Every structure is written in C-alpha cells, then in structure tokens.
Amino acid sequence: MLLLFGGLFFLLFGRMLQIQVTGQIDGRALAAMADQKYLKESVLRADRGKIVDRAGEVIATDTLSYRLIAVLSEKATKGSKKQLHVTDFEQTAEVLSKYIDMDKEEILERFESASPDAYQVEFGKAGRSISNETADAIKKEELPGIRFFEDKKRLYPNGNFASYLVGFAMPEKTEGDSVETIGKMGLEKTYNKQLTGTDGKADFKTDRWGIQLRDTKKNIQAPQDGQTIQLTLDKTIQNFVEDALNRAEKEYSPEKMMAVVVNPKTGEILAMSQRPSFHPGTREGLTENWLNEAVEETFEPGSTMKMFTLAAAIQENRWDPNAYYKSGQYKIYDRTIRDVNRVGWGMITFLEGFQRSSNVSMAYLLERLGDQTLIEYFEEFGFGKKVGIDLPNEAPGVLLANFPSERLTTSYGQGSTVTPIQMVQAATAIANDGKMMTPYVIDQIIDPNKDEVVEKHEPEEKKSPISEDTAKQVREILASTITSEHGTGKKFALDGYDAGGKTGTAQIPKTTGGGYISGNGNYLYSFLGMAPIDDPQLLTYVLVQKPKLKEGKYGSDPTSEIFTSVMESSLKYLNIAPDSKQPDASSVIQDYQGETSEKVVAELTEQGMKPIVVGQPGEVVQQSPAAKTKLTKGSIVLLKTSGETALPNFTGWSKKQVMVFKSFSGLDIRLNGEGFVVKQSLSKGASVSDGDPIVITLQDPEQSNQTKPEPEPDEEPEIIGG
C-alpha cells in the first residue's frame, strides 16, 4: 500500500511539474484556455457622422436609443429569487403591443414559434430605435424577461427640412447579424462611406460572474466616428423656404413645388426644398419619387429662358429696346408662334415686349441675333450638359436645335429641357456682373476624430458668355418687369428692396400621345429673380406645378407669395441694406484685416456702423461681414483680434451674427430658437472661460422679420476685451 500510494503521489507530482514547466495540457496552452474563458470583449459603438449647416447647426446626427429583447430561457432565472425570463406570453404580448409597432398576435407568435433552446427573441424593426421615453414606460410595467440594450438612432431634429437633399439612413442587418445604419437616399447615401464610423472595442478579464477583475487592465481601442458633412445651407433661410412652401401647399395644393436660394457671388446653395416632402426620421410622406428634382429632373422652363436670350442679344449688340415690332403672331415655315393673348398689343417696342413676356418679340429678336448664335450662347450658359454640382445623378437636359422652329421655341423656353440647377448657374452670370459660378452644396468634410478638414470646397468660376456691362443691362431690364406698368412681374416686388427677374408659364407635356395638357392652372409657373438688383446678394428660383386656383387667383400668385416671403425674410436676416427705404444711409465696408482695431473702430463709427472688437485692442485678423458688403447705418461689424473676450449685449443680434461671434471668440454659446436675440444667460461684460456655457434665446422668425432698432446717435462703439 505504501509503495502504491507513494507511486501515485510521485506520478501526480510529476504531472503537475510537467504542466507548470510546459504551460500546456493535452497540447493546449492553459493561458489561452483561461483567456478564452475569462477574457471579455465589449463593442464601443462609433457614431455615424453628422450633417450640419454652414454654421454647424445639426441637420442629421446619431442619438441614443434602445433595442428591445425578451429573454425566454429559464436558465436566466436560475439561482435568482426574481423572475428574469418571460413567464406569461399572453400578458407580455398585450403590454408590449401598446408601445411598439407590432400587434399582440404578432408578438405572441414570435414567443411561441421560438425554438425550445432559444435564450431570447428580438422584434425586428419594431424593437429597434426605441426612444428613452418609450423604454422608461415599458420598464415601469415591470415585465419579467424584458431587457433593453443601448443602441444608436438617426435623428433629424428639423423634421421636413431639405429632405430630398439630405435623404435618410436607417438600421439594416449586415453580415454576422450585426445592425448598421446605412444611407438609403440623398446625401446620407452619397456620402455613406464618409459618414460611417468604425466601432472600437474594450478587452478585459472577468470572474465567473462576468465582473471585471480588480487587478487587470482594460485594453481599449477607441471608436472612430464618421466624418462630418458641412453644407452650404443656411438653416434659417432653409426654414424660410420650408415655411413658404408649407403655406403655398396648404393654400393651393399643387402637384409639385420647388425652391432654390443661392448666393450668386459664390454659387453656394443656401436653401433647397421641394413638395411633396417627407420626414427623414419616420419617412412619413415619402412617395415613389425619390428624386431631388432640382438636380435630377428636367422640364421645359418657359419664359424664364427669355432672360438668357436677351443677354445674348445685348452681348452681340443686337438689342434695341426702342425699336418697334408687330406683336401678336409670327410665322416660321408651317408653324405660327403667338403671344399669350393670341392677338398681341399692336406695334410695341422690344422693351415693352420683354416686359409683357411676348413670344413674338423673341422671334424678331432671333432674326437680328441669328438662331445658331443663340444656341452657342445657351451652350456656354451650360444648358444641355451637367453643371458638375457635388450631388449625384445630375441630369443634363436636352437642348433642341436641329431645326429652325426648335431653335425659335427654345428662345422662349419651349421644347428644350433644363434642370433648375442649370437655370440657377446661368443666372449667376447676370447677378454676379458677368461671372458665372458653379452651384455647390458641400462646404467641407471634417474628421471629428482629428478635428481636421478632410475636404474643402471653394467657389468655382466658369467661363461666362457675357460681360459685366451686359449683366448690368440685363438686370435693369429684369427690374423693369416688376416696376413697369406692362410688366408681368408686378406681384414679385419686395418691401424695401429693388428686385428683378422673369416670370415663366410653361406648358406641361402629356405623358402619352404627345402634345401638351391644357386647362386652368395646368401649367408650370415659375419665377427666377434676384435682389437687391444693383448688387444682387440672393438669387431665388421658384416653381409651382398645377396649383388648384380659386376664382380670382392666377398662377403667379403662389410663386410670388413664395418668392417675396423668402427673399424679404432672407435679406433682412442677412442684414442687407434696404434699397428704397434708406438709400442714403448705407455704405460699403472695406477690408480691415491687418489694420489696428482703434483705427477701424474710428472709421466705422464715422460711417454710422456699430463696430465690435472681439478680443483685446490690436491687429484685426478677421472681420464679418466681408469686405465690399453694403450695410445700413447702425449695422454691427465684428472685428476679431487676439486675447481674452468678454460678452457684449447680444440683444437684437441675428442668429448669424451670434454664430460668427461664437466662431471668433471660441466661447461655448448655445442657441435656443430662431430669428433675433431677446435674452442671454450672462450679462454684458461678464468674463467667461472657454468651458462656461452661455445660453442665447432668439425670437421666432415670423416675429422678428422687422427692422431691428437702431442705436442712439451718440452711442459709443462697443469694444469687447479684457
């Protein structure tokens, strides 16, 4: 017995010694087996990149949500006094059906059809993207076995806001049954690769109950969030457009509507929307049409095209505004072109013909210009080819020019097709003194993980077919369509600003059988206009298709209501000096960068401006508004220097001015509302550090569309500094 037990002891000792020396058992490493058993890994979810407006205001972002599961396995309750699995299928299904988008029978069927060894079940789309409020409400029901896991949800805080431009993204199962947010439409789809982040992970060792061991380190691989897409859109101007389209939709119930607002000096798109529209978060209102019609849809533009025929004639010295022609009709081979009233207005001048939007005037003007020459100009304006905007699926349109009759009808916007973005690009040449700018909507792409700009878009000037002098002459004539007693654009006059533009009433081709549809309101009504006309700061294109017109209403009513509302609100918001109200109280500011703030303050004060130095007195390194901007007396001019910043009195400031101050100062300024400032959380002169939040309250845009109060004449310039 002694020998037997002694032998067993030495055998066991030898085995232990072997394991200790080799670290293996049956050829397997013990350390690896221990790691496999006790090493845990948790996924650190990356945020999908944000889409923001030009001032950094959020348009689309990720927010915290929850994923719902139901634990069915009795193993979950083993060793616990509390039930941790679903015990009553019927009651659980009935309660959950009140909170998620599944009826009781569907939930019950999911419970009962689960395999016997299933640990848990999920609820597909209905069980994902659950809000915090809904999760809290379900938790209060205290249903056994119902658990929540943190998840990401795509949030569109502005609702129906540039929906066909921004598009939407939604959770989708990928390989390995993981769920990832995928862009399905618009910018969300086009820039899905840039917006998609890379998940991180955390590795750590636990005990048998899953609790991290005290003496072990957690190895963290940080997630890489998706890139931020910053647009040229201005949230406030976009809201002006959305509100105007909503009112027109309610009043006229058109088949379609669209509006685009552009800075003609740069080509930056400040607003873009269409109707019908939809909510990107819920997809409510989304139809079978997924096209961003400003870029992807073509149409016959109608008489708005006449401004480019006029521009070509002026450039070629073929325009004589005081020459007469016989209005009414014009015959070309076997076709007869007629004016809108079919009989004309007798012998009238070419200027009056343009103001009345006479088709026949274009025919006689084409005789002077030459139809082949006109087509060459239209090609140089960019019609019949893509403008190269930074958006997908751009349509080129078709420039009909095979026959003399086609070239004639093209001169007044019939037959040939264009996209709205082509019309806008061509109009920038007129608004921007002969410099044609490429429209663009992506300002920059930013990597938030490194806080660096990955891609920056700059204004791009294209070769223009017209000169500065021609552009100015065209603008004068466009202004006369609004001010002349014969003008078709009288309804498009702005309060306080001189505007110019061209109306359009285009026929709509039939979908089958050829020809055009007819009947009251069965047209595409449009207006392409700019203001202030002597130096346009905004260019707006509005289209309304087949509005339902009540007695006494005309097709120009919905287009004019949208145009005037958007332009008046936007020009005031941008602090553009009114033309007709204060023609003598405005002045143009210069480039002050590199000069001393004391000198600039004195100069601006003499001009009647309100200079504000952001920082200590010293060299001006940045300014807002930019040089050569025309401002009214009492306007705020921000001058950035260096050094610590104290707070001004923000009362009456526009949102844009506050955002510029925030950018210049680097302070944590948080905005509530839209429009103009009415309240601030810290008073003027308060000393604040970078981390102190300052809450600024603004009025509703509709309440603040008024001229802001001017300062007293003897008010001292405000210098913000230590």
UniProtKB/TrEMBL annotation:
Sequence ranges assigned to domain PASTA in this UniProt record: 640-700
Localization (cell): Membrane
Primary localisation category: membrane
Presence of keyword Membrane: yes
Annotated PROSITE patterns: PASTA
Region of interest (Disordered), ranges: 684-722
Entry keyword set: Membrane
Sequence ranges of Acidic residues compositional bias: 712-722
SUPFAM superfamilies according to UniProt: beta-lactamase/transpeptidase-like (SSF56601), Penicillin binding protein dimerisation domain (SSF56519), Penicillin-binding protein 2x (pbp-2x), c-terminal domain (SSF54184)
A Pfam family hit: PBP_dimer
Record-linked InterPro entries: Beta-lactam/transpept, Beta-lactam/transpept-like, PASTA_dom, PBP_dimer, PBP_dimer_sf, PCN-bd_Tpept
Keyword S-adenosyl-L-methionine set for record: no
Protein family (similarity comment): Belongs to the transpeptidase family.
Name the record gives this protein: Penicillin-binding transpeptidase domain-containing protein
Naturally occurring in which organism (per UniProt): Sporosarcina aquimarina
